[in-house]
């Protein structure tokens, strides 16, 4: 079970889960039966294609209709006003699922480190995300993003070896003495904003802030620091992100996160040898090795479209319908 929690929580459970996940590496799960036509394939305007599926009250609920492959169960929860519904993977909101790219977009909580006027001290609220033992890994479109005027934040993860990196964001005052004048919209190179890449295969991370870098002395200009692993493909830094609560409020406390997913933990060559678990079951489908750790995904062959994980001719890979000119 993935864990999305404040990094202030005990890490013992995280490493126990990691140990259990490592024990299962190499075992190919059996292919589930064909999903029922009764399965819900949409939630809140988001398409939920197989191997994903809406299941019971929680992702680990029994799935009598085989709506999802193991690890791909989502829930369709009521959120907001007017009875709106949103798909979730545990407590992570799912925004989009792509079969062809083998990716899903989710929302991740932003870690904060803010000055508290009442206590005249700093209040850290760091977050982490544990996806070990699941089909998901953080995509390389994500970068560890740190926002602030006097901030040093660290990202720690479990990879082939222990992984730790950090990012510093500062606002050096110009000749007029105002740190805000050094900031520039669109620039994330260390002045008010810093970003760093992550290694491939990463499926766990947590954030921490260095207490030696805080906003106690500049809280009237920049009260908070922020850090999050986020998709930066559409990110543009704004100067107000570093001096006002703009970054947190713009994203509603959660930033977009892209995860790569796989349907097996073997290479395509190895997976094809076991027809009972091989997931590319549609005619005119092909297997693609993952570029982000072990495993594979399926695509329809060139000139075909549909779902390569389904055998039935109606929803599997098929040639597009021709239209008369």
From TrEMBL:
GO terms for cellular component: membrane. Residues 39-105 form the Wall-associated receptor kinase galacturonan-binding domain. It is found in: Membrane. GO terms for molecular function: polysaccharide binding. Its main location: membrane. Keywords: Signal. It is a single-pass membrane protein. It holds the Pfam family GUB_WAK_bind. PANTHER family: OSJNBA0016N04.9 PROTEIN. This is Wall-associated receptor kinase galacturonan-binding domain-containing protein. It comes from Triticum turgidum subsp. durum.
């Amino acid at each position: 079970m993935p864990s999305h929690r404040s990094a202030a929580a005990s890490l013992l459970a995280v490493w126990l889960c990691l140990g259990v996940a490592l024990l299962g590496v190499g075992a190919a799960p059996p292919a589930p039966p064909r999903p029922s036509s009764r399965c819900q394939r949409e939630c809140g305007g988001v398409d939920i294609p197989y191997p994903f599926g809406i299941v019971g009250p929680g992702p680990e609920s029994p799935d009598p209709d085989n709506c999802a492959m193991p690890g791909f169960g989502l829930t369709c929860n009521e959120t907001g006003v007017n009875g709106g519904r949103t798909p979730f993977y545990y407590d992570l909101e799912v925004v989009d699922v792509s079969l062809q790219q083998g990716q899903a977009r989710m929302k991740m909580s932003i870690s904060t480190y803010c000055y508290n006027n009442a206590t005249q001290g700093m209040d850290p609220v760091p977050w982490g995300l544990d996806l070990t033992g699941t089909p998901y890994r953080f995509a390389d479109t994500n970068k560890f993003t740190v926002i602030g005027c006097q901030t040093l934040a660290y990202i720690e993860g479990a990879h082939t070896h222990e992984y730790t990196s950090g990012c510093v964001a500062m606002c050096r005052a110009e000749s007029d003495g105002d740190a805000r004048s050094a900031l520039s919209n669109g620039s994330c190179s260390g002045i008010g904003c810093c970003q760093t890449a992550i290694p491939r295969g990463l499926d766990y991370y947590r954030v921490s802030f260095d207490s030696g870098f805080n906003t106690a002395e500049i809280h009237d200009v920049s009260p908070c620091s922020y850090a999050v692993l986020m998709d930066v493909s559409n990110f543009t830094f704004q100067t107000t992100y570093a001096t006002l609560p703009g970054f947190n409020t713009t994203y509603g406390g959660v930033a977009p996160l892209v995860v790569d997913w796989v349907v097996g933990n073997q290479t395509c060559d190895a997976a094809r040898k076991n027809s009972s678990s091989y997931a590319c079951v549609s005619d005119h489908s092909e297997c693609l090795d993952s570029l982000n750790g072990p495993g594979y995904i399926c695509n329809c062959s060139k000139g075909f479209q549909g779902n390569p994980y389904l055998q039935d001719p109606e929803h599997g890979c098929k040639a597009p319908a021709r239209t008369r000119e």
